[in-house]
């Protein structure tokens, strides 16, 4: 069977978990991404697994002020060409057909990622359906992500997640402590963007917590996002949660990644507290509950 993703091994080794890069995919005409099939998916998913709102929004958007359209999920899909909306189907792996496709794609990624950053887990899939010219506001995500463009075009502006002038340690701590994904975009940083113009058949890799925003082209856009975590990304999340917890207690710890010794001590302490919490059946006063 021909691979669904066309991955260049040297490029993958050089850039995975370091910077964005493009691959090609073979899902452009796949039946799972037709609008009638997506209506079926919407009916099958729990209501809280479909997020949708007006797509005519600014790059920086306060999540509490996200505008709605007044349409139902099904109406939004049926009228997607003119209703100026943005929508995402979350955790599509709940449907067996989408799960099988997600696993096939990520098994191919794992062939290249496992030797670099082992422990692929928490596989999740998302389908984005957007009206022409709609905007996905500036935000970041906690997973490794390959965004497969199925239909239409979109422009992705992505920013270096290691640049602390763009993304502060405090913002990362708040995010990992279950803050909202949306961020405030400073127009002065626009020139720092890595800009990718995606067409059907393109797939773009997003490193963990690299901020980005997206502008659709003049046609309806359908994209398939295949995401996963690794042992390393899970450890990173724990370290930022520990730092955020300690900050709230008035204790300032070194930034994540500054000292492997300190990071190792924080991680071991977290694991010890988490085990104690499980053994005591939730009666522990150690604060481990905060990290679950």
Your description of this structure?
- It is globular and about 55 Å long.
- The protein folds into two domains: 227 residues, Cupin (Jelly Rolls, Sandwich); 58 residues, no CATH class.
- 30% of the residues lie in helices and 23% in strands.
- α5 crosses α6 and α6 crosses α7.
- The protein has 292 residues and is of the alpha+beta class.
- It has an eight-stranded antiparallel sheet. A four-stranded antiparallel sheet has the order 6-11-8-9, with no helix packed on it.
Widest sheet: strand order? 1-2-10-7-12-5-4-3
What series of H and E elements makes up the topology?
Answer: EHEHEHEHEEEEHEEEEHH
Fraction of helical residues: 25-40%
**Which of globular, elongated, flat, extended, rod-shaped describes the shape?**
globular
CATH-derived architecture of the largest domain: Sandwich
Low-confidence stretches: 283-292
User: Major sheet, described briefly?
Assistant: 8 strands, antiparallel
Look at the structure and give the CATH class of the largest domain. Answer: Mainly Beta
The total tally of domains equals: 2
Number of strands: 12
CATH superfamily of the largest domain: Cupin
- Helix/strand class: alpha+beta
Features:
single chain, 292 residues, alpha+beta, Jelly Rolls, 2 domains, 8-stranded antiparallel sheet, 4-stranded antiparallel sheet, 7 helices, 12 strands, 30% helix
